[in-house]
Design brief:
This protein is α+β, with helices and mostly antiparallel strands. It contains 27 helices and eleven strands. The strands form four sheets. Strands 2-3-5-4 form a four-stranded mixed β-sheet. A three-stranded mixed β-sheet has the order 6-8-7, with helices on one face. Strand 2 and strand 3 form a beta hairpin. Helix 9 packs antiparallel against helix 15. The longest helix is centred in the middle third of the chain and has 24 residues. The chain is globular.
Length: about 675
């Protein structure tokens, strides 16, 4: 994926004035090559990121309700305010369309903070009662099934859903994976540095506060927080690292019910499946079998009271953002303020727009498409994608390190890639989802159950290759190795990321780079392990596989030298795929732009020659400011390198860049050793 989702998911609008914090009926315009963002005092051959983004960095401080601020984040802000205008209009005058009614009603219920506060923790009552009523651990399968359905699988020991069979991508099977941690990743529990210890102390205090909000006395709340930490630490120790999980073979463990039951002998999976309305005969992929063995041991040795404490915590944790202000503020204080350094809570409208997009995304997306995405824009994007794919085909055909046998398979995979632009061909049907204008928490639970059922109903059926993982307004893009498709929602095809008013150079640098990035994911360290049909299969000769790994290692070694914050270096095995995709995307975009403009007499504009405009257009998508707390968190969990290195780390490998800016030997952007995979 092109951007950091962990950051983008939290991005929203500035709230510095009443005029700014208001819904809009039109998207603002920012050029894809912004001269005001350039720092002319910087030498592009010394620090190209500073040159291309220095002005932007100076003029765009991080808003108080954000962990970071970026060009992508600002576009997300613009889209969110535009969606706010749509939802407010539907709330005021919904018309006769039932789906528009649901959108408006959902937004109204979410925005009614007075009613939400009056209900306090009442939305948890039935689930808390279910936990309290447990008389033995044998009831855990049924209770877990109910809790997971109501909370969209958040927490509660493990996750359960559907996914494509890694060995036969045309089929959907049941999928269960690790879960159950309140901190973002296993390493938060296991690292022994002072920062990690401080965060764990803060987490314990937060869990204690949440138990107190549920009505528990302080002493009991502290004891239960200690139990939660002990259980979660045991689960963390049994979990694979983020780097290990980048190897799909380590997550491929297909088995039947008998095999699954053997992992957790005391957990009756038949009861669990029955409560999820699934047959015993469905096949499973158990992503981390060792985790489930450890989970079985942890549940076995814990008292029923300990299990109840753990379930109560995760129920409160999963629903806290949708309850009264006390819960919302407690959740914010730890997860946003402590972990990410954000000083101020987002205004409620931002959270409500995001929730509508999350639970009714394609319904809201349809409204967005009708107002902000033209057929011409879709056609232009598709044309660039075709150019990029042509460039990759030409690259594959002339690679001197790849044998003809592997090359034929690679070209077959490239030919099989489907380009999805803007929005799905068939819109999702929300007619069975009940939405009430006066029941916010109920809407959340019903929305969770709707998505839960939609996912589980796929099991045992052929995959729907027309489905999208992102809603149309999303400011992001992705490649799916099992679908073998690249996806560009309409939200990411807006200025300044794609600018129909601008010349080809910055558009190919920016949007072309994004398309090339996603296309390269099909052939990065993970993507290359899947064939043209999305099956996990080794189609490389041993010699070609070794040649790939040698070239990829050059990038891994390069990025391992970069410091993120303090003394924390990039975990370049975690970022390997994104770093490969960044470089491949830029190379392909350059080749495609050159082919597009081969018969044109290009001129300098605003003091930048055409080649310079291409590279500045590329770099400016990555302009960002990030809080140090967020940088530390991203170092553990984010597969993307920070923006500065997603620019400078590429330019040292691009002789075309060095020529465009007349870089000289000895300058940082010109090095003796260059890396290139694709």
């Amino acid at each position: 994926m092109r951007i950091r989702l962990t950051i983008l998911a939290l991005a929203a609008a500035l709230s510095t004035s009443a005029a700014a914090d208001a819904p809009t009926t039109a998207l603002p315009y920012t050029p894809s090559l912004d001269l005001q963002s350039i720092d002319h005092a910087a030498d592009p051959c010394e620090d190209f990121y500073q040159y291309a983004c220095g002005g932007w960095i100076k003029n765009n401080p991080i808003p108080d309700d954000q962990s970071s601020w970026s060009v992508y984040g600002k576009l997300y802000q613009d889209n969110q305010r535009f969606l706010w205008g749509i939802l407010q209009a539907l709330a005021d005058k919904p018309g006769v369309d039932p789906i528009q009614h649901k959108l408006g009603d959902y937004f109204v219920a979410c925005m009614d903070e007075t009613t939400v506060n009056k209900r306090a923790a009442a939305p948890l009552r039935s689930s808390l009662a279910r936990i309290t009523a447990m008389r033995s651990k044998s009831e855990l399968p049924e209770v877990l099934a109910r809790l997971q359905a109501a909370t969209a699988n958040r927490g509660f020991f493990f996750t359960f859903g559907s996914g494509q069979d890694l060995g036969e991508a045309s089929q959907v099977i049941a999928k269960t994976d690790r879960g159950g941690l309140g901190l973002p990743d296993r390493d938060y529990y296991l690292k022994d540095d002072d920062q990690s210890k401080t965060l764990r102390t803060g987490y314990l205090a937060h869990v204690k506060v949440m138990f107190q909000l549920l009505g528990d006395p302080e002493k009991s709340a502290k004891q239960q927080a200690d139990v939660v930490m002990a259980i979660e630490t045991a689960l963390a120790k049994a979990s694979l690292s983020q780097v290990d999980r980048r190897d799909p073979h380590k997550l491929d463990h297909k088995m039947d019910l008998k095999g699954l039951q053997a992992l957790m002998p005391d957990f009756d999976w038949s009861i669990y499946l029955a409560r999820r309305d699934l047959a015993d005969s469905v096949p499973f992929n158990v992503a981390e079998p060792a985790f489930f063995k450890a989970l079985a041991g942890e549940v076995s040795k814990r008292s029923l009271g300990d299990i109840k404490s753990y379930l109560r915590w995760h129920l409160a944790h999963s629903m806290a953002p949708y309850l009264s202000t006390k819960f919302v503020d407690a959740d914010f204080d730890f997860y946003r303020k402590t972990l990410q350094g954000v000083p101020q809570q987002q205004p409620r409208w931002k959270r409500c727009v995001a929730l509508v997009d999350d639970q009714l995304g394609e319904a809201l997306g349809r409204e967005f498409i009708e107002r902000a995405f033209s057929p011409e824009l879709k056609k232009s994007t598709a044309h660039i994608a075709e150019r990029i794919e042509t460039a990759m085909r030409e690259d594959l055909e002339k690679l001197d390190w790849m044998s003809d046998a592997t090359r034929a398979m690679a070209i077959a995979k490239l030919d099989g890639i489907v380009n999805k632009v803007g929005y799905p061909d068939q819109w999702r049907d929300y007619s069975s989802l009940a939405v009430a204008r006066d029941d916010f928490a109920g809407n959340i639970e019903r929305g969770n159950q709707f998505e839960e059922r939609r996912q589980l109903d796929k099991i045992g059926k052929p995959v729907n290759r027309g489905e999208w993982q992102m809603s149309p307004p999303t400011v992001n893009a992705y490649y799916d190795p099992q679908m073998n498709d690249i996806n560009f929602p309409a939200g990411v095809l807006q200025p300044p990321l794609f600018d129909a008013k601008m010349d080809d150079a910055p558009n190919y640098g920016n949007t072309g780079g994004t398309i090339g990035h996603e296309l390269t994911h099909a052939f990065d360290d993970e993507g290359r392990q899947f064939d043209a049909h999305g099956n996990l299969r080794d189609w490389w000769t041993p010699q070609d596989g070794k040649a790939f790994e040698e070239r990829a290692q050059c990038i891994v070694d390069q990025y391992a030298k970069y410091t993120i914050v303090d003394d924390i270096k990039i975990n370049s095995k975690l970022t390997e795929g994104e770093d490969i995709a960044d470089l491949g995307g830029l190379v392909l975009a350059w080749m495609a732009w050159r082919a597009e403009t081969a018969d044109q007499q290009l001129q300098s504009v605003d003091g930048l020659n055409p080649d310079q405009r291409f590279f500045v257009g590329y770099a400016q998508w990555a302009c960002e400011n990030v809080r140090s707390e967020q940088l530390r968190a991203s170092a553990l969990t984010d597969p993307h390198s920070p923006g500065r290195f997603r620019v400078n780390g590429l330019m040292v490998n691009m002789p075309e860049f060095q020529s465009a800016f007349s870089c000289k030997v000895g300058q940082p952007m010109l090095t003796d050793k260059r890396c290139r995979v694709w």
